[in-house]
Design a protein that fits this description.
Pfam family, one: Chromate_transp
Number of strands: 0
Keywords: Cell membrane, Membrane, Transmembrane, Transmembrane helix
Largest sheet: none
Order of helices and strands: HHHHHHHH
Helix content: over 70%
InterPro entries: CHR_Transporter, Chromate_transpt
GO molecular function, one term: chromate transmembrane transporter activity
GO cellular component, one term: plasma membrane
Structural class: mainly alpha
Number of helices: 8
């Protein structure tokens, strides 16, 4: 009976939960940050209910402005929120460990076979799945991030700017500045 109680306490420990949740995400994190957004949504919003859709969008936005990948930044941020500094560390380790294991094992097993037709066909199938996951991520970001007329206008202007060759850093700075101006304007209107 004591062993079962101890096992339940371990499972309920937030640091163990953070590590195992991000470990699970890490094992299926093919295709980079945007392809993993549906995994984050499923595990962190629907299953664990640790964050909301809006918080996920904020984490993704913040992750784009800081060095590192979306995966590491999201894991560290959510880990810090849920389990303080140790939570950030174990969540980050959880997201990193699978990549290290998978790459090490694949290199030792199939290092000389990456150019083979079978491996290339498998990657073709994986890439097709990743395109769908990235499209789903775009849908989630649009649905969560464009609420109201002003964000929609900013979205259209940014889209136009990107297609016209405006540098992404300039677009991010202009987006932040425009968000500040809209906020300031709305405060002025509410005072009147």
């Amino acid at each position: 009976m004591t062993g079962l109680v101890l096992l339940n306490r371990v499972r309920e420990n937030i640091h163990v939960q953070l590590f195992t949740s991000f470990l699970k995400i890490g094992f299926f994190m093919f295709g980079g940050g945007y392809a993993m957004i549906p995994l984050l949504e499923q595990e962190l919003i629907r299953k664990k209910e640790w964050i909301t859709n809006d918080e996920l969008l904020e984490i993704i936005s913040f992750s784009q402005m800081t060095p590192g990948t979306i995966a590491i930044n999201a894991a560290t941020h959510i880990g810090n929120i849920k389990g303080k500094t140790l939570g950030g560390v174990v969540a980050s380790l959880g997201i990193i460990v699978p990549s290290l294991l998978i790459i090490t094992v694949l290199y030792h097993i199939a290092g000389g076979y990456f150019e083979s037709e079978i491996v290339q066909k498998a990657f073709t199938g994986i890439r097709a799945c990743l395109v769908v996951m990235i499209c789903r991520s775009v849908y989630i970001l649009i649905r969560s991030g464009i609420k109201g007329g002003v964000p929609f206008v900013v979205f259209l202007l940014v889209l136009l700017g990107l297609f016209c060759g405006v540098h992404p850093i300039l677009i991010i700075v202009a987006g932040g500045f425009s968000g500040f101006l809209v906020w300031k304007w709305s405060r002025l209107i509410h005072k009147i």
